[in-house]
Design a protein that fits this description.
alpha/beta, 7-stranded parallel sheet, 335 residues
Amino acid sequence: MKVLVTGAAGFIGMHTTERLLARGDEVTGIDNLNDYYDPALKESRLERLRPSPRFHFEKLDVADRAGVERLFARGKFERVIHLAAQAGVRHSLKNPHAYIDSNLVGFTNILENCRHRKVKHLVYASSSSVYGGNTRLPFSEHDNVDHPVSLYAATKKANELMAHAYSHLYGLPTTGLRFFTVYGPWGRPDMALFLFVRAILEGQPIEVFNHGKMQRDFTYIDDIVEGVVRTLDRVPGPDPDFDASRPDPARSQAPYRIFNIGNHSPVELLDFIEAIEAGLGRRAIKNFRPIQPGDVPATHADTAELAAWTDFRPATSVRDGVSRFIAWYRAYYGA
């Protein structure tokens, strides 16, 4: 297939593109290569993709309306995987306009061009952050998600609503994927695993929020990519069982679906740190801190819907995933 991957120089974008190229798809990747974190890491990811003759890269911001229109006019894409976004819960407290430009304006540009260019399926990144103030675990797609606790989460919830409107109005098949704490080789430097490994190797203290009383459904990158590709290959249609008198957030009369992609096995933050210490052979110096604004104490994905739709459940253990990240980190940084 001819596939567009936005955010191709990102962590999930690079791995997803590699998988599509490996199976023979033709991939156009775009990314604005911004400096939210080290652009050199993004360039290194692209260097892994460029040797393929079926990969074409353009530096482009999804918020550039005219540029995105020209891209779609040339590309004749059959399917689109939209991963480009301004990420980070805490950063949204300091720089809200970046989230409006990328996550709302940019997503509108993608939806409009998918609509007008008759794209057969749009798969886009949502986030576990949409569950916000929910305390019922595990998080289910059938739950209400109307109480975000960060602007980042609010933009992801907005993306789901915008996608539904386009699915309803124009018959555009869309699938939203709520990612749960993705980690692994080539991961983002602002994520806990990267920060912890770097600090421990440098003999610096690590910041342990909510005094360590946190749980996260850490999901290994290969499992995320498997979920992305399997959902890409199955185009949703209207749900014949949808009941408008008792609407279910996970169902629709439109060609629209939402899925959690998580490990369905939350890990205590202190146990996660222990796995890092074991992999490095070093102890961490811990600074215990209060919970940060926008954070939630626990995440836990109900993955029954994903399994029923794709016959796949993420299952990589944290110890295996952490050890693979550490091996990559040591090789890449010579640490």
